[in-house]
Amino acid sequence: MRLTLISATIIAALGGLLFGFDTAVISGTKTGLEEAFRLAPADDWLGLSGSFWYGFTVASALIGTIVGAIVAGRPADTLGRRTALIGIGVLYTVSAVGSALAWNWGSFLFFRFLGGLGVGGASVVSPMYIAEISPARYRGRLVAITQFNIVFGILLAYFSNYLIAQFLSGEAEWRWMFGVEAFPAAAFFLLLFLIPRSPRWLVLQDRVDEARVVLGRLGTDTGDVQAEIEEIRASLDPAHHSLREPLFRRVYLQPILLAVAIAAFNQLSGINALIYYTPFIFEMAGAGKDTALLSAVAVGFTNLVFTMAALLIIDHFGRRKLMLVGSIGYILSLGSTACAFYLYQEKFQAAMRAAKALAETKVAAVVDATAVAAAESALAGASAAAHLGSAIVLISLLVFIASHAFGQGAVILVFISEIFPNRVRARGQALGCFTHWVMAALISWTFPMIAARSGGHIFAFYGAMMVLQLLWVLLIMPETKGVPLEQIQKRLGIE
Fold first, then answer.
1. DSSP assignment of 43-77, as one string?
2. pLDDT in tens, 231-245
3. I need a labelling partner for 488 at 20 to 30 A (CA). Which of 143, 157, 251, 435 fits?
4. How many CB atoms lie within 10 A of CB 365?
5. Which DSSP string do the residues of 259-294 spell out, in sequence order?
6. Mind listing the pLDDT tens digit for each residue in 124-144?
7. Helix or strand or coil: residue 365?
8. Using the 8-state DSSP alphabet, how is residue 223 labeled?
9. Among 350, 358, 395, which Cα is nearest to 374's?
10. Which residues contact 37 (CB under 8 A, 6 or more apart)?
11. Is 60 exceeded by the pLDDT of residue 317?
12. Residue range 330-376, pLDDT digits in tens
């Protein structure tokens, strides 16, 4: 692989790193946000609980993500993939600084919404740009670098949250958790000026001479730049298709259904519930705050390791095999997590009550050493009773995140970026990502409300959805490994 191809891929994939960081950073700020913006657990005057309003606060970024995903295709087509990424870098930077300096709940929601616009845009444009600059034999692993960076960003967010929690407390803690994202966001913005424009976008704009130069720097499958140019032109078929033709036409029905299905299943696994609420889930399973934050780091590290493994083999094993392995892992891990919550629910709740009682005793106006000792003893007993169930939840969720990283996580961005023809790829990618983020918003908003009533029910539901995904992979999903982008549309019956 050529240096220009590698460097452009790494820089564009930094959008994924910020995507992951921005998505996961809120997981460590639950208590701080509830206290700062009075998202109390008691019902409000509308009868809505604190869980509802905290879920809405988390979902505010996801609302931005939905909007960002659906609108990103237009500027990516008109201004170019690189210019769209530069705008995304601006959104990330402003969101990080604004979220850290938010003066009230409304301003916080606004800046998180801006960050969501960046995440939604990056989920569309970063993998699309990389797919369009990559020769077919490298495309899977190069596009998967975006996913690697997403999970690396998630791990960095978990680790950053843990470190900040060790040195800061109160309002400064959650503000710094959001604010540190400004540094990599600014670096992403500046580095984007060093990468070339997408050669396929240049051909779309009839800037063929520029496209020829860029392809010469990036490399092609055959080594024949002119032949590549002609194949791209042929795929556009200007005699029968306009670049402004609508996406929702019968000819594009198959890739549309494939993109919507894989995006919906991705979220119906519950992956974003785990990413947004990792410490909360482990606290639900009887772990203390510090243990919950460390468990989140373990989840992030597992995600990273198995994403790396999938990245190395995706172009050899193919997309379908990874999806099959991941689906089976999902079903087993979600089933065991649901069983643990069904069997140990009362012991988990006793441990949570004991942890809360100890925290309240330690911050009382007059700290009673005897009362603190009694609360610590009660917590130790409750934690011991819940220990086996907590261990099952931890192990099961580590298997879950490994299954996701090795399967859906590695495949989704690659697959959606491949299945649409050049002339509608930006809008097709936007549709897939829009579906993904709508489902993510629904899952993330409803999770705390449902989980507060029954952890078993919610994980059992996710497991049932993964049985359906397994059937979809077995019966419907096509293989796109090693097939040039212009040939994939022919295999899907699109001329």
1. --TTS--HHHHHHHHHHHHHHHHHHHHHHTHHHHH
2. 777 766 554 445 566
3. 435
4. 4
5. HHHHHHHHHHTTHHHHHHHHHHHHHHTT--HHHHHH
6. 888 889 888 888 778 778 887
7. coil
8. S
9. 358
10. 57, 104, 105, 108
11. yes
12. 999 999 989 888 887 777 777 767 777 777 676 665 566 777 677 67
Amino acid at 114: L
Q: How many CB atoms lie within 10 A of CB 35?
A: 13
Q: Of 176, 408, 446, give the one whose Cα is nearest residue 303.
A: 408
Q: Could you read off the pLDDT of 140-161 as tens digits, one per residue?
A: 788 878 878 887 888 888 888 8
Q: What is the pLDDT of residues 319-330, one digit of tens each?
A: 899 999 999 999
| ∠ CA 404-406-412, rounded to 5° | 70
Domain ranges of the chain: 3-39+48-195+262-491
Instruction: Please give the Cα distance from 174 to 139 (Å, whole number).
Output: 38
Residue 458, classed as helix, strand or coil, is helix
Residue with tokens 């850290």: 100
Which CATH architecture describes the domain 3-39+48-195+262-491?
Up-down Bundle (1.20)
Largest CA distance in the chain: 85
pTM score, whole prediction: 0.70
Interior/surface letters 68-82, b for 16+ CB within 10 angstroms, e for the rest: bbbbbbebbbeebbb
Would the pLDDT of 255 be above 60? Answer: yes
* Closest by Cα among 178, 158, 175, 151 to 92: 178
Which residue has 């564009």 as its token pair?
Answer: 12
Q: How does DSSP classify residue 40?
A: -
